[in-house]
Structures are given as structure tokens and as C-alpha cells.
Amino acid sequence: MNRPIHFEIPAEKPERAINFYKKVFGWKFERWNGPMEYWNISTGDSQPGINGGLMTRREPAQPCVNTMDVANLDETIKGIEDAGGLCVVPKMPIPGVGWLAYFKDTEGHIFGAMQADPAAK
User: Fold this and answer.
1) What CATH code is carried by the domain that includes residue 101?
2) I need a surface site. Which of 22, 30, 67, 70 has the fewest CB within 10 A?
3) For residues 21-48, average pLDDT
4) In angstroms, how far is the first alpha carbon of the chain from the final one?
5) Rounded to an integer, what distance in angstroms lies between the CA atom of residue 63 and that of residue 33?
6) What Rg value do the Cα atoms of the chain yield, rounded?
7) Residues contacting residue 100 through CB under 8 Å, at least 6 positions apart
8) Which domain holds residue 43?
9) Residue 24 domain-assigned?
10) Residue 1 lies in a domain
11) Over the stretch 31-43, which tens digit does the pLDDT of each residue have?
């Protein structure tokens, strides 16, 4: 089965985006030693997931939304807003799955955050 193995985040101001994702999710960034400005992103190693990259050049509109697994969506919403992000779709239940909200980061990209909760209605 084909699975997502990488994601990319274009950013007009990479340091601003790096600071945002470090503060909100604790991601680690390492500058790539290649011909373009690019940072490899490590999202963690304690549970299944994917890693990605942050690039300085803006490409056409990003066609997909990445959703992050979070332990507490209410705390995540506050952390995102405190870090300069914006909640664009409020917390909503996905019955039998969990709680989901969508946000814009400091670069204007949409992403989701979901808290697992089989009792969500």
C-alpha cells in the first residue's frame, strides 16, 4: 500500500515558520547542505508518522492539508494562537474518531490538528 512519506512547507520567511512549528509541535529542523535553501524536518520518533521539509521558494498553492495528531486539542488551539497562528475551522467532532480543527500557520498554510476520542459525537 502506498503511504505518505514526506511533506513540504513553503515559507516566505523560513525562520518565522521554523520558530512557529518548533514552538507549537516541538519539531526539529536541520539545514540541508544542498544547492537550495531547505531544512529537513523531524516530527518525532516515538510513534508512527512522517517527516518532511521546509523550503524557501513558494510553489503553486499547496493542494493537500496535513493533519497532526495531538493529545489535547484545546491546549493545541491555544498554543497555535499564542504562536501567531489562526484557527480557521473551529473544533468539531468527527463521530467515533475524535476532535478536529483547522488552522493557518504564520505562512498562511492550512493544516489540521486532531485529538483521538472514540466517544466524540
Assistant:
1) 3.10.180.10
2) 30
3) 90
4) 31
5) 27
6) 15
7) 67, 73, 91, 92, 93, 94, 112, 113, 114
8) 6-116
9) yes
10) no
11) 998 888 899 999 9
* Residue in this structure with the C-alpha cell 467515533, named with its chain if needed: 96
- Residue 80 amino acid letter: I
The C-alpha cell at 62 is 499547496
The C-alpha cell that represents 106 in the structure block: 504564520
Tally Cβ neighbours within 10 Å of residue 64. 9
What is the pTM assigned to this prediction? 0.76
Q: What is the SS3 assignment for the chain?
A: CCCCCEEEEECCCHHHHHHHHHHHHCCEEEECCCCCCEEEEECCCCCCCCEEEEECCCCCCCCCCEEEECCCHHHHHHHHHHCCCEEEEEEEEECCCEEEEEEECCCCCEEEEEEECCCCC
Scan for cell 466517544, then name that residue.
119
107 is a domain residue: yes
C-beta separation of 91 from 99 below 8 A: yes
Domain contains 54: yes
C-alpha cell at 40: 529537513
Number of domains composing the chain: 1
